[in-house]
């Protein structure tokens, strides 16, 4: 009888990592869901953080951003001042498009490299948390897409509490985004964040049990 144990149980056993693309509108609860997934054992890549690294001082991204928008967007330290850059791009759709054209391809490569490293390290589940997962065409990094949705009035309430921003500016940001209906049309999993934090946690855990936990099962015996 053939013995497969050395092939399947040995150090060279092929291991599959699940990549979840986690997205949702502003204030929908993406970061909270990502933290819950992290608690369940997922490795989380936060696209926001990757974005900041993509124009860290001294990088090619930094040079391109300064060339495009001038050194008026720099802090005294020479770092890009996100507030100053935000003031330029959020009031000018063309400028935002230009910034995205500089940053998004770089962010894609950085996230892909990180996923490759996690795969090599034998991780079971990775999460790419990105507000613009679909718009920036990063969904191709993921095996499945999880979308967090939340009623607009709850988002408003949460964001006002979090940032103190006024209702009008929050509504404008919600309006400028892809609609939830459109986002949901890409989703393999929809997480409805319309209740308490405990309820959100329950939903994330239920989806994890259904779709992700078996990737951790593969870990057993290694
Ligand atoms: P953004 O894209 O703006 O960063 P996000 O989608 O990552 O937002 P979170 O940061 O997770 O959203 O949530 C926004 C705020 O709402 C946070 O302060 C969070 O603690 C709170 N929050 C999220 N879900 C709930 C909930 N179900 N009940 C109460 N507060 C919540």
Q: What strand order characterises the main sheet?
A: 2-3-1-4-5
Count the helices. How many? 10
Which regions have little confidence, pLDDT < 50, spanning 5+ residues? 1-10
CATH class placement = Alpha Beta
Q: Main sheet, how many strands, which sense, barrel?
A: 5 strands, parallel
- Going by CATH, the architecture would be 3-Layer(aba) Sandwich
Name the hetero compounds present.
adenosine-5'-triphosphate
Structural class: alpha/beta
- Give the integer mean of the pLDDT values: 91
Percentage of residues in helical conformation: 40-55%
Topology:
Elements: H1 5-9, E1 18-24, H2 30-39, E2 43-46, H3 47-54, H4 60-69, H5 82-89, H6 93-120, E3 125-129, E4 144-149, H7 152-163, H8 167-176, H9 180-184, E5 189-192, H10 197-217
Parallel strand pairs: 1-3, 1-4, 2-3, 4-5
Helix pairs in contact: 3-6, 4-6, 7-8
The structure holds adenosine-5'-triphosphate.
How would you sum up this structure, described in words?
The protein has 222 residues and is an alpha/beta fold. The chain has one domain (2-49, 114-221): P-loop containing nucleotide triphosphate hydrolases (Rossmann fold, 3-Layer(aba) Sandwich), CATH 3.40.50. It contains ten helices and five strands; from the N terminus they run αβαβααααββαααβα. A five-stranded parallel sheet has the order 2-3-1-4-5, with helices on both faces. Helix 3 packs across helix 6 and helix 7 (152-163) crosses helix 8. It is globular and about 50 Å long. The model is unreliable at 1-10 (pLDDT under 50). The chain binds adenosine-5'-triphosphate. Residues 24, 26-32, 131, 158, 162, 193, 195-197, 200 line the site of adenosine-5'-triphosphate. Adenosine-5'-triphosphate is lined by residues 24, 26-32, 131, 158, 162, 193, 195-197, 200.
